[in-house]
Amino acid sequence: YTRRFAFLVGANNGGKDRVTLRYAVDDARAVQKVLKEMGGIFPEDSRFLADPSREAFFSEIKTLAKDVKQAKEKFRRVEVIFYYSGHSDEENLFLGQDRVSYKEFKDLITSIGADVRIGILDSCASGALTLPKGVIKKPPFLLDTAYDMKGYAFITSSSATEAAQESSRLKRSFFTHNLISGMRGAADRNLDGRITLNEAYQFAFDGTLNQTEKTMAGPQHPSYHIQMSGTGDVVITEIWKSTAVLVLKEDIAGKIYIHNEDNILVVELNKLAGREISIGLDAGVYRILSIDDSYIMEAEVALETGRSEELVSAKFSQADKIPTQLRGHLPV
Asked: Rounded to whole angstroms, how far apart are CA atoms 228 and 69?
């Protein structure tokens, strides 16, 4: 019924006048991984470019357009997801010394003959794509629960006047970290096992804004522009398609941090008591921290391929806080 394509670009190199980014290529690979595992995209339908030239970028999009045209002859519905992480300004995406204007990019994406085209940009001032003369800070959009939308949508990690920020703690950008956490299940507000475009955006918006409010660069507001007909929303990922599933039971509450065996933070969320949340992950051993105002609780879970593992509060034990030396005095 549906065939889905993904095109992902990571560009650490923004040219000689721009500082080289640390995590843009890794961000793109991480989004690709989630889409292939949980987004219904076959390996042959996923394209990835690391620090491409303008020529390679346009060539790959033209090939994608041809593949979409052929797929339309065999499938009732065809969808395309494009993701870019890298440098940009108010007018262009940066590919090394090359530039791709927002107009060129938008024209290319909207001209592809898929039923749904989604463009996600994680870069500075990318909100200029959604509103060329600036952006109004909006709350997440709301749609109903049907799934027959057709058209295009653009989601950007920042407004037209804001920086998109990376975090050495997360080893990822704030926006993509929250987007991936949401796509893996943290954004499943109605608990139906599906993460929609709306749910993913809402989660990324809230998480990005919350984590950047006190940074030196200042608050970062994701933005969007949607032009679709029909009703409902587009499903981005399905939790039960993942390799394994971690089920956080109703009695767990607080700020939840899920680290893999390499001690990389893979999912972060605020969990309320009384709600069961399922997170799609790879098989392996995970360390889960639950933090509230008083305690830090820790648990370890081994996930097996094709199985789900339930985690309850009784499996946590209290962890010691790491002592630190303050550089100054806190106000009384």
From this structure: 20
Q: How confident is the model at residue 292 (pLDDT cuts 50, 70, 90)?
A: confident
The secondary structure of residue 64, as a DSSP letter, is H
Q: State the number of CA atoms in the 13 A half-sphere of 4 facing the CB.
A: 19
Which positions ≥6 away from 210 have C-beta within 8 Å?
none
Residue 139 has pLDDT above 70, yes or no: no
Beta strands, E only, the chain: 2-11, 46-50, 77-86, 92-95, 98-101, 116-122, 150-156, 166-167, 172-173, 194-196, 223-229, 235-238, 244-248, 254-259, 265-271, 277-281, 284-291, 296-303, 308-311, 317-318
The confidence score (pLDDT) of residue 130 equals: 58
From CA 26, how far away is CA 32, in angstroms rounded?
A: 10
In terms of C-beta distances under 8 Å and separation of at least 24 residues, what long-range contacts does 325-332 make, across chains too?
Answer: none
